[in-house]
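Tutorial handout. Part one gives the primary structure; part two gives the three-dimensional structure as tokens.
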Amino acid sequence: MAQLISGLQVQRIRANLERVREQIADARERAPARAPSGRRHEVELLAAIKYVASDDLPLLADAGIGLVGENRAQELAAKHAAHGELFEWDFIGQLQSRRVRAIVPYVRLIHSVASESALRELRRHRGQARPGLRILIEVNVAGEQGKAGVAPEQLGELVARSPVPVAGLMTMPPLAARPEDNRRWFAALRELADEHALEHLSMGTSQDYVVAVQEGATIVRIGTRLYD
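Part two.
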């Protein structure tokens, strides 16, 4: 069983949240303006709650967090049943096709679609989906063996066959000693999104979100940086 985070305090989460938001704002201002209007991209902060107990979720809401992401389908359903009205909900874990049915009623975005079987299940269960459901295609930009995500050259086919709107792309870059080492992978994902006229880029976690924002992230997935 996963080790849950203990000792969460509203004041600490609020202070961490403010600090992360300031860093995001600074990185966004330093990033080139890429929108057609010349306006810089907006960035959403998603709180990863895999290791946050359901009973502690109201603390996150009290601290000012409005968007959360869960990695596990069963935990998503349970946490949403208890606190669904407190947040917007995304699914950010590795997507198993057999779990699609359990996920779609609750979320606005699935960040990790990467297979034809997942698309088939989305088509099969879209009648049970929350209105406005969209997906992000997970791309293995570094070509790592055994890692989830489609190859860049397969992206167009998956987008074309999706039964629900594709909002953008997601990636998990290789483990790196320095955040700067992931810049090229974030830039590669941005270039793919531009090529396919997709809006959202879910990239960057607690370790490297500043670099991700500089390279065009529109959603960053933050966990430990909010809770430590």
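Part three, for discussion. The chain has one domain: 10-227. The chain is about 35% helix and 15% strand.
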